[in-house]
Amino acid sequence: MFCLPLFFGAMLLLPPGFFAAEISSHYLSDKGKTIILQLSIGSPAPNTIIVVQHLPPGSNVINSSPPHNTYKKKSEKIKWLIKNPTSGNMAIQLHLQDQVDAGSFPATVRYMDSRSGAFKANRNR
Q: What sign has the CA pseudo-torsion 34, 122, 53, 113?
């Protein structure tokens, strides 16, 4: 009986965000010709973030910001390798030649958690 209140009391002393995911992501724009994926990067930020965006069949990439590292048209994947990111929000913009429908292109965000050393992946639809 005494251990449970002690456990919860100790949890209150942990810093804010201790149990929160280090990186969360969501689409600010997920249809049309411009796709925007926002990353919310916690502190401390990981050393590297890998973002893999799957594209709808037949999509043609015009450009992206930040510039992508690889684009495999055959497998319809575009990849960013973001080195030494800073904590806070970061937007990844992808400009396509043709319009796309919402939800037709999932993205995966992968990184190594700097607190636990565990490899993590988040998937967006």
A: positive
**Three-state DSSP class for 6?**
helix
Q: Which domains does the chain have, with CATH numbers?
A: 21-124 (2.60.40.3670)
* pLDDT, tens digit, 9 for 90 and up, residues 81-123: 999 999 999 999 999 999 998 888 899 999 998 778 888 988 8
Instruction: Judge contact between 34 and 95, C-beta under 8 A.
Output: yes
Please give the biggest Cα pair distance in the chain: 63
Q: In whole angstroms, what is the distance from residue 28 CA to residue 124 CA? A: 12
Token readout for 106 is: 């999932």
How far is Cα 78 from Cα 61, in angstroms, rounded to an integer?
9
- pLDDT, tens digit, for every residue of 57-66? 888 999 999 9
